[in-house]
């Protein structure tokens, strides 16, 4: 499920030191001992070494004898020793060579078999640390992240061999692993359950490594829709929103089973409906977006084809109306009704519509704002009006604004249109309605835009998440806390990915382009 790993530089750490190595060259594969005559042992190292101590068989020594270290010029041993050593005593004299001769100053015979111990010191040479693929045949692909030049402790200060790295080890391990994962992906191969790397500590000469701290902390990372078919997992998704109302759309974020989420983010590009929309308003001038989810009213008046219902309204100010929204619950499938605005005549609807639209509800039991579009915008004055609803098929409940009593409906006969059945008159502002005005012109929207486009609300379950950063219409949301809390509710830790609902709500939205969620997690 991982596309890559992210190595934590705040935790990952290598600390230690490359140190000198003292060892017995007699038993070393890097040293050759050759008998040269009866009195001389020719010593050949793979690289120059510092001689620390020589021990020979005491039976070979003369009285107060010394062991001479002689330089060798091609094949000729220099007669005079450069350094003379006491048998089996550590010397402080600096004799460094890769090829030299041993002789006794007494000129007694000295055989290779008489040499019991040749202690030499090797210095770390160009020490380095890297990481390579687990196959030793691919060590040539190693990436190195630490190196010191020269011989540490011999010309180069000893503290140059001290290692204390964090950021570079994190960056390099991450780069190599992600390179391996990308290679597998390009080849169409599955990611193995385990990917082996080798951490390389190297020196061009034998040395000791003192390793005090070694930590590499990482999380797996993915940017895909894990609950979708493979071909669609990396695709962006587009949600489309209804106009004139608060609309809610959803996607799902899938989390691998057993994962501990360390970070979760999602990028969203918001597409608005051009110029901001005017907020729907009541006749009294109260503005609010149409939000189906907020329609929690349990009280209203039932309307069917047997009797229209009229709501008395008096606009607080003149306004232009292009559509009428009514809060309703359909009681039957394919319910249709007519909505009209009528002047008041003798405290009743005149029967002559100023404007009229239709509504249709396809599904019963759903509570929502139904929007009746008018053929043309109509200007309403501050004179009393009636909002008349006539059901043609089915039945609805027109929801009340509040739980308070709706007053006593009166039965009246409209004398202006005797074909209308009796109308139930409802007191002012008792039933849910909103007037939708024409969209403001572009020139007029600058100051009103904040009020006419509600912020996008994003939720995981019931928990709202807030933007982490925003650049124009592109918003990145931080989901970590809300997602972790949601998962804490308890889900099976094996099998398919855990699917988490992510909802988007807003007014004045047209589309949301949503990119695959970016998850960092540990297993």
What helical percentage do the residues reach?
under 10%
Q: Which word captures the global form?
A: rod-shaped
Outline the low-pLDDT stretches: 404-421, 441-453
Mean of the pLDDT scores? 87
Structural class: mainly beta
List the helices and strands and how they pair.
Elements: E1 4-7, E2 13-19, E3 21-24, E4 31-36, E5 40-56, E6 67-73, E7 76-77, E8 83-85, E9 96-104, E10 115-122, E11 128-133, E12 143-147, E13 162-165, H1 167-186, E14 197-202, E15 208-215, E16 218-223, E17 237-240, E18 246-255, E19 260-272, E20 300-304, E21 309-313, E22 319-330, E23 335-344, E24 349-361, E25 367-380, E26 385-393, E27 395-399, E28 410-412, E29 423-426, E30 433-436, H2 449-452, E31 457-460, E32 463-465, E33 467-471, E34 474-478, H3 480-487, E35 498-507, E36 509-514, E37 518-522
Parallel strand pairs: 21-29
Antiparallel strand pairs: 1-16, 2-13, 2-15, 3-10, 4-5, 5-9, 5-10, 6-7, 6-8, 6-9, 11-12, 11-14, 16-37, 17-36, 18-35, 19-34, 19-36, 19-37, 20-27, 21-26, 22-25, 22-27, 22-30, 23-24, 23-26, 28-29, 31-32, 31-35, 33-34
Description:
With 523 residues, the protein is mainly β. It folds into four domains: 4-20 and 125-220, no CATH class; 21-122; 230-273 and 453-522, Jelly Rolls, CATH 2.60.120; 292-436, Jelly Rolls (Sandwich). It is 6% helix and 48% strand. The chain is built from three helices and 37 strands. It has helices at residues 167-186, 449-452, 480-487, and strands at residues 4-7, 13-19, 21-24, 31-36, 40-56, 67-73, 76-77, 83-85, 96-104, 115-122, 128-133, 143-147, 162-165, 197-202, 208-215, 218-223, 237-240, 246-255, 260-272, 300-304, 309-313, 319-330, 335-344, 349-361, 367-380, 385-393, 395-399, 410-412, 423-426, 433-436, 457-460, 463-465, 467-471, 474-478, 498-507, 509-514, 518-522. The strands form seven sheets. Strands 1, 16, 17, 19, 33, 34, 36 and 37 form an eight-stranded antiparallel beta sheet that branches. The longest helix is centred in the middle third of the chain and has 20 residues, at 167-186.
């Amino acid at each position: 499920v991982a596309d890559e790993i992210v190595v934590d530089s705040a935790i990952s750490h290598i600390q230690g030191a490359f140190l000198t190595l003292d060892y017995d060259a007699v038993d070393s594969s890097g040293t050759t001992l050759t008998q040269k005559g009866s009195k001389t042992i020719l010593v050949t190292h793979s690289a120059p070494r510092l001689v620390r101590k020589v021990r020979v068989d005491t039976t070979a020594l003369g009285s107060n004898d010394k062991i001479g270290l002689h330089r060798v010029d091609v094949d000729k041993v220099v007669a005079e020793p450069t350094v003379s050593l006491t048998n089996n005593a550590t010397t402080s004299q600096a004799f460094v060579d890769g090829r030299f001769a041993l002789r006794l100053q007494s000129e007694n015979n000295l055989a290779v078999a008489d040499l019991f111990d040749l202690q030499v010191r090797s210095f770390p040479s160009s020490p380095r640390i890297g990481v390579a693929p687990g196959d030793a045949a691919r060590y040539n692909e190693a990436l190195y992240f630490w190196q010191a030049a020269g011989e540490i402790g011999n010309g180069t200060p000893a503290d140059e061999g001290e290692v204390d790295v964090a950021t570079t080890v994190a960056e390099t391990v991450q780069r190599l692993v992600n390179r391996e994962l990308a290679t597998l992906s390009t080849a169409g191969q599955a990611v193995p359950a385990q990917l082996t790397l080798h951490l390389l500590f190297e020196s061009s000469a034998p040395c000791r490594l003192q390793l005090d701290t070694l930590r590499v902390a990482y999380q797996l990372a993915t940017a895909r829709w894990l609950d979708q078919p493979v071909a669609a997992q990396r695709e962006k998704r587009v949600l489309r929103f209804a106009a004139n109302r608060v609309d809610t759309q959803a996607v799902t974020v899938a989390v691998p089973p057993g994962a501990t989420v360390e970070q979760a983010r999602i990028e969203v590009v918001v597409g608005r409906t051009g110029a901001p929309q005017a907020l729907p308003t009541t006749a009294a001038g109260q503005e609010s977006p149409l939000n189906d989810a907020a329609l929690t009213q349990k009280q209203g008046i039932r309307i069917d084809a047997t009797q229209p219902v009229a709501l008395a309204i008096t606009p607080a100010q003149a306004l232009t109306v292009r559509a009428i929204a009514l809060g309703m619950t359909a009681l039957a499938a394919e319910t249709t009704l007519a909505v009209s605005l009528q002047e008041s005549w003798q405290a009743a609807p005149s029967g002559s519509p100023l404007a009229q639209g239709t509504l249709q509800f396809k599904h019963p039991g759903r509570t929502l704002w139904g929007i009746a579009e008018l053929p043309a915008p109509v200007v309403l004055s501050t004179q009393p009006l009636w909002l008349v609803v006539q059901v043609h098929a089915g039945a609805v409940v027109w929801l009340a604004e509040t739980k308070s009593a709706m007053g006593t409906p009166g039965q009246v006969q409209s004398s202006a249109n005797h074909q209308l059945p009796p109308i139930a008159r409802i007191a002012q502002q008792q039933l849910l309605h909103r007037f939708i005005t024409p969209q403001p012109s572009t020139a007029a929207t600058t100051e009103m835009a904040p009020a006419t486009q509600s912020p996008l609300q994003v939720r995981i379950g019931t928990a709202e998440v807030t933007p982490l950063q925003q650049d124009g219409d592109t918003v990145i949301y931080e989901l970590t806390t809300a997602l972790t809390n949601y998962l804490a509710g308890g889900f099976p830790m094996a099998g398919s990915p855990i699917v988490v609902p992510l909802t988007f709500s807003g007014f004045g939205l047209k589309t949301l382009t949503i990119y695959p969620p970016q998850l960092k997690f540990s297993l």
